[in-house]
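Handout, page 2. Input:
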Amino acid sequence: MEHPPTGRTIGFPRESGTERRTICTPAVAQALVQAGFGVITEPGIGAGVFIDDALYAAAGARFADGATVWSAPLVLRYKSPDPADLKRLNPGQRIAALFHAEGDVALLSALKSSQVTAYSYEFVAENGRFPLGRPGGEIAGIQAVLAGAQALQTPNGRGVLLAGVPGACPAQVLIIGSGNVGSAAARTAVALGADVIVLARCEESRSAYLRDAPDGVRVLINSPETLRDLLPTADLVIGAILVSTYDTPQMISSAQVHDMRQGAVIVDATCGYGPGYMPSAGPVQRLGDPPHVVAGVLHVKIDVWPALVPVTATSAYTANAVPYLERLARVALLGAQDLAIGASVIARDGQLLHPVLRQHARIYGMQS
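Output:
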């Protein structure tokens, strides 16, 4: 089979550390090859999710050493590379990943010094939505409910079973946010038998969510007054705000935590930055950390739930991402124009371009 020109080659290096997920499945490789691109990857790219190298070869991928893969004109990863990995790239190369670079001063600095063009999947924007955030958000929403259910059953927890049982009062679940994370959390909680209230950002968000909301879910517009009234009766609160950054207003104050039920649980599944949102939750926790207890309320603050289910996460994410990866390759390698992909550019030629990253760079005293 004749290989495409070098300028149309996409490299898929193995992920860093203990990360098992991959953005390169045989289906992804086959789609890109059929679209006219060359795919090179390191052996074992799918080992973490039990995909054999032979399936990649059958899909048209070629294997190479790490240095060769990292030298491809376009490098695609699942998670963000370590700052040191960016030193393997040359100025002018292109790389795409779930960077989530905001809040990471070392990564922001590496993006600037590398002078590469970087795309961050979570910022791909189309029709007012972020389609590449949907699978991860849905997994995070489901797992946030499962984590909350477990915390409610711990010695410090309220002792409420999230699933409905005849004769017992249903658990009260409050979800702040009606996007991918909040919607999945609501579906999961109501399916288990809980009473669920979702707080949407505005009337437009509320109306959009109501079109697909499962039976049994109440949807209200979020306001300080509504939140103040609902928090004291909640057994489980799920924080599912799409973007929470340094200027996001405080959502749940320490005083409001003191008004909550003893043993209630707050799960922050999106984990923003700065003092806003849920300041009493403390820093982001690691997987496996026990809940942080404040005023008798258990706080779970984790934003990497999909990492616990790499097989499911890889399947769901790549099935959804294939058309967008093709479009990204056409933009990065062929110069195509695509507004949705263009929205995901976070850095180019030593400059940070996305407004969220520029804001964080200013906070850190960096020149964006």
